[in-house]
Amino acid sequence: MSSNYADQRYRQGSLPGSAPLAMAYVPMQTSAAPAYEAEDALLRGTLFPGLDLPFMGLVNRDLPSTPLAEMMAIDFVVDELELYLDTHAEDEEAFALYQTMLSLQKEARERYARRCGPILQSDMLGMDSYAWLSGPWPWEYCQRKEK
Questions:
Q1: Collapsing DSSP states into helix, strand and coil, what is residue 92?
Q2: What is the spatial distance between Cα 41 and Cα 19, in angstroms, rounded to a whole number?
Q3: Closest by alpha carbon to 73, among 100, 51, 44?
């Protein structure tokens, strides 16, 4: 997504005229679509453009291109969809997207564990030796090659 496009979209959210001064208010989104892509959602802090109200218009700009960043972006989208579905359980389209993202989340975690080492205890199931403390660590931008 180009930065110009992203910069223009954050102003889509609005507060009702009756919102009291200095009280937190989060408008309820009316639908799960349109939604940001996973990487943009993580940078924007929301999956939903209608809820995109960054403080003073400040938006994160860079997400490193690493297996950990990919996994974090997918995890963020799964969490956002779960929160949406808590209040919109009947939204079949959002639930289908949630199922797709859960599948992508599983694949991303498995890919990360193969390439960089375990991220969950269950990733060590079937390993030849205890690898929990083996590097590189996630913040070291893993150097192992995918098997």
A1: helix
A2: 26
A3: 44
